């Protein structure tokens, strides 16, 4: 009986405990809403007033500076700055009108929001530094380029540097390109891909510096500069073209296997047929299958008749990727040229590999002619 009484008491105690816990949570939620209501109301009203002012300013924007310095547009505190900034950035993002964007950026600068956020780039709080770097990029203000480059790109926190990088990309900061390339040294593989994408967006403006750092002592920098070059369509003859080509040829012997692989692809994209023999050596002698695979693909792009036999031999490679890419490359030459090369060298008759090449060629090649 004593045990049943204790069990019953324990159950009652647990029920009371959970009941009071749920009640306390309900009270907390309602109390929080009641306490925050005045602040939310003021924030909503402030947003409405500032939005209306900005709309009128944009509508009658002949004298924006006069309106900005009037008592109606005075920024009094931190909350005013936050609200105004969020409205301006939101309208920047939505607008497709270049003149409107310029006007909104000017308003952002005149209100002192750039100086406010630049000051926060030196904050002890890394979260505040990230927000400041992000919003400065969203403001599209060129005044933000120098502080983002000189302060944020050297920040001790990698996340802050990464946010600053993306902001400089938005601001099209060509003067910061050398500092952006310098991020290749310290960033992870995934973040280096973002750096490369931003450099690709700069297109020809980034080419001189990419060429300069192709012989950087840092292997990561060399590789990513080369990989970025591969993605840029170079359709004009550059004054430093010969220097760039010479550096890329040197990278065919780089100690880093991915750099050797992309060097072959880069030369192929540049249409350097004179480099076919050097790339063929990679295909025949390199120890890494990725390099041999990329070299086979590069030779297919160059389409030089003298390397057909080398590609046929590569179809025997123990790596499936190398064999497959060699098959694809051979298809680019057409049936006649490949058949002629195989007949000259009868030792290259191997049915199984050639069937795959025949299938890739759409059935044009007849294996019976090669026996």
From TrEMBL:
Single GO MF annotation: oxidoreductase activity
Organism: candidate division WOR-1 bacterium RIFOXYC2_FULL_41_25
Protein name, entry field: HEAT repeat domain-containing protein
Top-level taxon in the UniProt lineage: Bacteria
Pfam families: HEAT_2 (PF13646)
Key words, A-Z: Membrane, Transmembrane, Transmembrane helix
High-level lineage: Bacteria, Bacillati, Saganbacteria
Residues annotated as transmembrane: 12-31
């Amino acid at each position: 009986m004593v045990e049943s009484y204790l069990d019953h008491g324990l159950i009652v105690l647990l029920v009371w405990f959970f009941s009071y816990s749920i009640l306390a949570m309900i009270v907390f939620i309602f109390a929080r809403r009641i306490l925050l209501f005045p602040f939310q109301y003021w924030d909503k009203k402030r947003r409405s007033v500032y939005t209306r002012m900005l709309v009128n300013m944009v509508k009658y924007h002949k004298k924006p500076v006069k309106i900005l310095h009037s008592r109606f547009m005075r920024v009094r505190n931190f909350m005013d700055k936050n609200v105004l900034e969020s409205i301006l950035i939101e309208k920047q993002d939505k607008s497709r009108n270049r003149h409107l964007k310029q006007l909104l950026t000017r308003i952002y600068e005149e209100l002192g929001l750039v100086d406010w956020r630049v000051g926060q780039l030196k904050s002890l709080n890394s979260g505040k530094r990230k927000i400041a770097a992000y919003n400065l990029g969203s403001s599209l203000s060129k005044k933000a380029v120098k502080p983002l480059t000189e302060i944020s790109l050297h920040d001790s926190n990698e996340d802050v540097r990464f946010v600053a990088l993306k902001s400089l990309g938005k601001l099209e900061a060509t003067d910061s390109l050398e500092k952006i390339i310098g991020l290749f040294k310290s960033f992870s593989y995934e973040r280096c891909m973002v750096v490369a994408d931003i450099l690709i967006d700069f297109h020809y403006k980034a080419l001189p510096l990419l060429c300069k750092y192709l012989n950087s002592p840092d292997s990561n920098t060399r590789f990513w500069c080369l990989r970025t070059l591969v993605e840029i369509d170079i359709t004009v003859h550059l004054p430093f073209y010969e220097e760039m080509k010479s550096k890329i040829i040197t990278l065919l012997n780089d100690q880093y296997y991915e750099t050797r692989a992309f060097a072959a692809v880069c030369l192929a994209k540049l249409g350097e047929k004179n480099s076919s023999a050097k790339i063929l050596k990679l295909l025949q002698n390199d120890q890494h299958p990725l390099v041999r695979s990329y070299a086979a693909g590069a030779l297919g792009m160059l389409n030089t008749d003298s390397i057909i036999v080398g590609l046929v031999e590569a179809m025997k490679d123990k790596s499936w990727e190398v064999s497959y890419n060699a098959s694809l490359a051979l298809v680019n030459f057409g049936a006649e040229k490949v058949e002629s090369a195989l007949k000259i060298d009868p030792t290259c008759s191997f049915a199984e590999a050639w069937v795959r090449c025949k299938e890739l060629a759409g059935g044009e090649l007849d294996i019976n002619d090669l026996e």
